[in-house]
Amino acid sequence: LNPRLHIPLPQELQGVANTLKKVGLGSIATDLENKMNDAAEQAAAKAAPVFIGAIKQMTFEDAKNILAGKENAATEYFREKTGAQLKELFKPIVTKATDQVGAAKAYKGVMDKYNAIPLVPKTQFASLDDYVTDKGIQGLFVVLADEEAKIRKDPAARTTELLRQVFGSK
After folding, report:
1. What is the DSSP string of 90-150?
2. Rounded distance, CA 10 to CA 30, Å?
3. Are 73 and 38 in contact (CB under 8 A)?
4. Contact 128/103 with Cβ under 8 angstroms?
5. pLDDT: is 170 or 109 the higher one?
6. Which of the two residues, 75 and 113, has the higher pLDDT score?
7. What is the pTM of this model?
8. Average pLDDT over residues 123-130
């Protein structure tokens, strides 16, 4: 697994995880983190149609700007054209997935265990689903940027005739 795609516990919960580790309950925080990543993976699997839609709507001018643009011009094009739609698509999937994989229950368990420890500052995190959704989408764009870099630099990565025509004409 690419460590750049791993979703860590939210910064606001790092103190909670550290405290739980100190009292021998670190495994429940690790379990929550693993379940968050499982939920994001389930959502990411549904992203292809959104990107395909953005490709179908691409104009000749868009393609020309991507070709002549910065090293990440295609990634930025897709971020601009699909970001809001991906969030709309991901959120219900993540919400369902966090429930199915047990992340929501694990989060509640983490917080219940932590808040039961005497003399610790009480902590609450706003929305696990929003956090996982945002981090999952960020991960998609990390992968997209990596692929774009390969296509721009390595002719062998231009696996379709269209990619060979577009990126071979520079």
Report:
1. HHHHHHHHHHHTTHHHHHHHHHHHHHHSTTPPP---S-HHHHHHHHHHHHHHHHHHHHHHH
2. 12
3. no
4. yes
5. 109
6. 75
7. 0.78
8. 79
**Per-residue pLDDT tens digits for 18-41:** 988 998 988 988 988 998 998 898
Does the pLDDT at position 146 exceed 70?
Answer: yes
Question: Which of the residue ranges 55-59, 69-73, 76-80, 107-111 would you say has the lowest mean pLDDT?
Answer: 107-111
Contact between residue 36 and residue 103 where contact means Cβ atoms under 8 Å apart: yes
Q: Which secondary-structure segment (H or E) carries 80?
A: helix 73-100
Q: What 3-state class would DSSP assign to 24?
A: coil
User: Are the C-beta atoms of residues 26 and 6 closer than 8 Å to each other?
Assistant: no
Query: Which of 6-13's residues contact partners 24+ apart within 8 Å by CB, and which partners?
Result: 6/37, 7/33, 7/36, 7/37, 7/40, 7/131, 7/132, 7/135, 7/136, 7/139, 8/33, 9/33, 9/36, 10/125, 10/128, 10/131, 12/123, 12/125, 13/110, 13/123, 13/125
Tokens of 105: 């229950």
Tokens of 124: 């609450």
Both tokens assigned to 137 = 């989408």
Closest CA to 73 of 4, 7, 166: 166
